[in-house]
Structure to design on (148 residues):
């Protein structure tokens, strides 16, 4: 079975080279445990290997997420400019319908929790149009609180 390296040496060794290719992996932990950092490290490592990654943020604006990563030696902006690291701001899913479009530049509207279907369409559009190989939705808790 093909493996997708996470970029975390010890974890990749334990997993026999990384996550199984084509699988959905759920990362669970308490607030502040490093789930977002893990997800972005996974995407960034893929970008370094030439794979396009998509980060869908459901709580925070992408700029805030990027600011939180400044202590790491990652060229997030450079990878974004190269089209290897893409962001969808779906933080509007937690806001009221009066908020402005939160998912640019890819289109769609995620201004209300009722727009979840539109978010899925937008994700599919980006994945197909940009040849995305790695995806992270963060935090999944936002989806669980609304739909589970």
């Amino acid at each position: 079975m093909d493996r997708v390296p996470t970029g975390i040496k010890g974890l990749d060794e334990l997993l026999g080279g990384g996550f199984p290719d084509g699988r959905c992996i759920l990362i669970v932990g308490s607030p502040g445990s490093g789930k977002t950092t893990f997800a972005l490290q996974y995407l960034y490592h893929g970008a370094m290997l030439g794979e396009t990654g998509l980060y869908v943020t459901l709580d925070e604006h992408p700029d805030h997420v990027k600011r939180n990563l400044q202590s790491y030696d990652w060229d997030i902006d450079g990878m974004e400019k190269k089209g290897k690291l893409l962001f969808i701001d779906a933080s509007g899913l937690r806001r009221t319908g009066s908020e402005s479009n939160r998912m640019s530049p890819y289109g769609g509207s995620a201004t209300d929790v009722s727009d979840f279907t539109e978010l899925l369409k937008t994700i599919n559009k980006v994945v197909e149009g940009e040849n995305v190989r790695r995806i992270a939705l963060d935090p999944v808790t936002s989806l669980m609180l609304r739909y589970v």
Remarks:
- The first strand starts at residue 3 and ends at 4.
- Residues 29-147 form a domain with the Rossmann fold fold (CATH 3.40.50.300).
